[in-house]
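Provenance and format

Records in this collection were gathered into a single text stream. Each protein contributes a sequence line and a token line. The two records reproduced below are adjacent in the stream.
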Amino acid sequence: MQVIVRENNVDQALRALKKKMQREGIFREMKLRNFYEKPSVKKAREKAEAIRRARKLARKRAQREGLVAGGRKR
């Protein structure tokens, strides 16, 4: 991963790096690898995450098609 430092502005480059790492899921990965996770627990967690992603995608699709009221209120 690479971030360009412009005009010696390290703070801005650090913020950009953190944002990239957050998007890539590196922080979550580090947190998960901190302790050993049993294979059965890992499998259950990954299955639950997949279900959550599928439900979120279906909900967004339904909102886009106008089947379900929702979205953000401004």
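Adjacent record:
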Amino acid sequence: MTFNPFQDSPSDYILNHYAFDAVAFLRDYWQKKPCVIRQAFIDFQDPISADELAGLSMEPGVDSRVVSCNAGKWDLAHGPIDDFGKLGEKNWSLLVQAVNEHYPPAQELLRAFRFLPDWRIDDLMVSYSTEGGGVGPHLDQYDVFIVQGMGSRRWQVGEPGDFETHCPHPDLKQVPEFAPIIDEVLEPGDMIYIPAGFPHSGDTISEALNYSVGLRAPSQAELISALADHALEHDDLQLRFRDRVEVLLDDSKAALADREPWHLPAEIIADCRSLMAAALDNDALLHKVCAELFSKNPRPPLPEWPEQPYTPAALKYSCQRYDMLVKAVGVRMITTTVDSQLYAVVQGHWYTLDSDAEALFGLLSDMTDFAETLTILDYLKSDSARALLCGLLNEGLFILANDEP
């Protein structure tokens, strides 16, 4: 049984197929050029209000900031934000990261972007801005979709180039003004796509909410770091450097006494490169490292471990004692195939899947915050399915709970 995430999981946020063709978009625009999609969402309703966003920014552990510009002077304050009254009525923006992880209803908006792989979607950043609010012209190193909620904003996007960044505030990077290739005002339900490396600027015309879907794009450094971390943890990649005698006996020197022991010859660098290349020439290891990296949220969820470990044999009984299965905030879940076997990888933990466990995985992956346990019971048909749920419960990534008043 193969689970279809687009089936039996209705969402209020569905891309307007008359305005947006995912196949044509991926073929013609994705990571190539920016575009504006008018009425990408018909009758768009904000999943969060400005007051709710402000309340969220006051909570500890929520990544938020206020950016303002008055008389040409930029300022940035990090949350928790405790006083909005002093900001005035114009020229400031509140930006809150990972709203989907702190406010489950906002998670629904991300479902519309599942024409891209789940692991590519980083988070939903929500901004509230007053008239004149913005963060100035800047570059992002990742692709982004920005959906216009209430209000309106003017967006300008320029051609990529070699821009020298400057910091009008220590925590705010900007680029110089640019010649726009897109200069459009977005109204509720409109959407703009901006590929990585394209300079852009958003200026608020009327009090606005914007929803930025950021795409995860690991760098070479992050991938190599993940490989190194995995190797150190598991004692992998232990092949060590060995000298080549012909390099030690350099024929360009008449005698060993004439050598320069402080000199690092180019041949040594070539040998180190070969040693590193050999580490990368291990497909099985790279598959494991990448799967674990992409299944982990860079903002790790806080696990809630059970007092006593759950067992597969008692799992159905345990589920019957509770009303709902709750998903920890920020859990990342992917599947991958190794040697013809399908696996689930959840926050770096591996689980073998059969068809029943795959169906259960699909249900769990599609959950926003909770599901009724009566629904879950229908999926616990095989040993693999029970082992999957047991593992996730014992890792504290899913929690059985009662819906107490």
